[in-house]
Amino acid sequence: MSAPIRTRIAPSPTGFLHLGTARTALYSWAYARHHGGEFVLRIEDTDVARSTQDSTDQILASMHWLGLDYDEGPIYQMQRLERYREVIAQMLAAGTAYHCYCTPAELDDMREAQRARGEKTLYDRRWRPEPGKVLPPVPEGVPPVVRFCNPPAGDVTWNDLVKGEITINNREIDDLIILRPDGVPTYNFAVVVDDWDMHITHVFRGDEHINNTPWQINIFRALGAPLPAYGHVPVILGDDGQKLSKRRGAVSVTAYEENGYLPEAMLNYLARLGWSHGDDELFTREQMVSWFDGSHLSKSPAQWDAAKLSWVNAQYIKAKPDDALAPLVAAQLKKRGIEADDRLPAICALFKDRCETTVALADWAAAFYADITPNADERALHVTDAVRPVLATLADKLSACAWDKAAISAAIKETLAAHGLKMPQLAMPVRVLVMGTAQTPSLDAVLELQDRQVVLARLQKA
Ligand code: GLU
To answer: Does residue 340 share a domain with residue 221?
Structure first.
């Protein structure tokens, strides 16, 4: 029996969960689920200066919000320092790693000289033990780093799950530092020990890591560990064709949660951004899991399309049951200090067709729970002297009728008949006064959900 499929996502807690990382997490998760395998969450917190607990919390919350459940983790690299040091000791003993005592100033000089000669700036391996080579005398007071003995020549080739065959020559890379003087390992080393220990079989990650992969493969080989398969997913570009970045708008999952997007819509949109299943645009997470076998991943960068995401979100909002939508809208209202009540599911039902986000739905719902200010232009256009007596008649009828759609509709019709007017001439000003704008769903349905006293008070302000 072959080993079970195991994938992982390994975010660094130096900020929110980036959309690109969320997409890679989704692919890793779906791949594991598709194959009945396991998905691991690892927090790569070895950049001690930039890692924060707050970022870790945000990442975990975003994973939870997206529903990307993991079978193991979170595993923190900083809790595995002993294990890394143990492997380093083995490598030092085996001669696949060595101490290097170069000072930062020496390294600067080395690079300077290489640049002057027009060469690539690579560590010149001056501390690498070699048969017959005399190493420099160990300087006093310089804490050493540990470097990996990268093979000095030959190609590293792997069959990338996304990009196909990739080859990088070892002459392009040097003996990288794997352990810093403070005893904390560097990314390329820790990631190998972790992927090895955690039995990771498939690594999906952003293609900015392609240049790290030869080092990692070489370290795996030096350790005699089985190699995972790698799939490097292209970057996501912003609307302007540049890499999606903080400076170019919302890039964190948290921001989309706050801005009223549904996790199922985010997953659907992120999945399609760089992967396809025929022409399918809308699909459930179950469908994705059944379809996602690692094929049909795009080799070229995907373009972030805010309008398309909004469209996808609108489809999910429309399809979501009102009882499930209401708590999300209630949470948005709460942020504005507004308490909703049991009318909210019906309000969602009435307005969800015209909303792209739960924030937009909350904007409508707010008109039922808090004061409104009618749009000034619409007010000037529709609430005219001619219509004021008509509004008074309507208010009169509404103060006495039963408070349901049929009775409200009858009151409106009687008012129109009494003044010889057509529906829009009355409906527009009533909408502006009661809801703040003339563009609302059917007036009787809207009024039925409003509190009668609120309607009368707002009509009085005509
Ligand atoms: N911590 C790395 C990152 O966030 C993980 C890279 C990897 O998946 O190997 O980019």
So the answer is: no
The last residue of one of the domains, among 152, 179, 206, is 179
Give all strands (DSSP E) within 152-248, no chain letters: 155-160, 164-169, 177-179, 202-206, 229-233, 236-237
**Do 330 and 197 sit in the same domain of this protein?**
no
Say which amino acid occupies 24: T
Residue 244 has a pLDDT of 83
Pocket of ligand 1, beta carbon within 6 A: 10-12, 44, 191, 205, 209
Residue 272 has pLDDT above 70, yes or no: yes
Closest ligand 1 atom, CA of 195?
9
Give the number of domains in the chain.
4
Q: Give the distance (Å) from ligand 1 centre to CA of residue 207.
A: 10
| Nearest ligand 1 atom, CA 11 | 4
What pLDDT is attached to residue 147? 98
Pair (421, 279) in one structural domain? no
pLDDT in tens, 223-250: 999 999 999 999 999 878 888 876 666 7
pLDDT in tens, 77-93: 999 999 999 999 999 99
Nearest-atom index, ligand 1, CA of 44? 1
**How far apart are the CA of 205 and the centre of ligand 1, in A?**
7
DSSP string for residues in 346-406: HHHHHHGGG-SSHHHHHHHHHHHHS-----HHHHHHHS-GGGHHHHHHHHHHHHHS-SSHH
Q: Clarify whether residues 93 and 165 are in a common domain.
A: yes
- In the block, tokens 């692919």 appear at 27
Q: Which of 120, 163, 243, 246 is catalytic?
A: 246
Residue with tokens 């022409």: 279
Residue 246 annotated as catalytic = yes
Task: Report pLDDT digits (tens) over 145-197.
Answer: 999 999 999 999 999 999 999 999 999 999 999 999 999 999 999 999 999 99
Domain, as residue range, for 229: 1-74+184-319
